[in-house]
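Table S2 (continued). Query chain:
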Amino acid sequence: MRDISGKAARLTLLAAIAAFGAALFGFAAKAQQADAARQAVILRIDGPVTPANAQYLAREIGEASAANKELIVIEIDTPGGLVDSMKTIIKAVLASETPVATFVSPQGARSASAGLYIMYAAHVSAMAPNTNTGAATPVELGGPPSEENPFEEKGGKDENPAAPEAAPEAAPTDAQPADAQPADETAAPAAAPEETPPLANADAMRAKIINDSVAYIRALAEEHGRNADWAEKAVREAASVTSRQALDLGVIDLIANDLDDLLKQIDGRVVKTVAGEKTLRTADLVLERVEPTLIERILGFIADPNVAVILMSLATTGIIIEMWNPGSIFPGAVGVICLLLGLYALQVLPYNWLPLALMGVGAILIAVEAYSPTFGLAGISGLGLIGVGMYFLFPEEFRVSTSVIGILLAMVGALLALVLVAVVGSRSHGPMIGGEAIRKREGVVDDWDGKEGWVIVEGERWRARSDRPLHPGDKIKVVEIDGLVLIVKQAKASGLLEAFAPRPA
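Corresponding output:
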């Protein structure tokens, strides 16, 4: 009986220990989940909005939302970028159950064009002091916008603002019955109101893009209670404001000095997400900064306008060198690789066709320099056209640094000049092998008797003859070749002392 009761006590004790351990495990798991939820993910847009950073942001926002993080902060410093990439980021923000805050920082940063749309999509929008935002007018990829405003009325009052408005038609009175005829029977009838002519195809397309952009940003503004009228002005008129003006206009929610100040100010704020209203608890949050992958960083680096023109310059240089000296392989291969990377950069940056065409003409002129005696005129003109094309290739907010252009032109010009001299020099010499290659070569007399003997030329021993006696050790120059016999003459002494040097016996 005692054994049975002892076994039951031991089993009860083991069961209690197991239950206690399970309870501790469950508590630890819940605590770990709570700690994970008390984290804030820090992401960043630094540079143009491209497919690379759109993929990075969309992925990390989705993962943070799935992990039920407390907050996602996107630090922004961008001049704008591609519409498709911008919409990819906005869709991820709108679908996130975790609140997303955008923060234009550090001081001196900007959030132009696509950056403004992303700020309007965020649940909390903040800016650091001395930053700016706006200029959200869409720019057509591959060409500049039309100079004519498609929303301006054509004809009518706009054509002559000083003209007074037409007086309204007088109502009939007792003195002038309604059926009375006008005093002047020859007076011309009133002109019918002029209808506004339809827009041309290019202007109609631009108007369509702008109207769509206006509707898109107004919808984002109304969702979060921000200034929709100013947002429309930023799209139609490219309006820009400072951080202080943005706060006064209701474009952003707050101004924060740094990330810690931002978290302090939004603590307790209630925001509306796709999962409903959420109260932000940002005190003592664990901050986790997530960087893009290596491939995403490389693609983002290539999308920089300065890097893009460097790649296009290397591509042009490599391909031209390959054209000058076919079979070099390496310059051509490097040029093609740089060309592909440069075309990727042009795919994600707004550029103008005319400067790109000027760069192409410049490259052709440089290639012509190798085959035409222009004394450098074609090459210099080509470099000049490439420089002008580089400067005007991208819109003003993406403009390439003039110092970068100057350094590139100097380096490319010097490299092409060296290669051209080497190529022309290699084509100007005579035969390299065979009997014809011996002409005008110099050698030394090995053995001589009268007017005939043996000479050493280019390490080879030849039978030779001369019109005057020579001595072993004399320097000779090949004048002609007669079958297998060289006709030589004594070479001029290269110096005064060498002329009196003793000859070997």
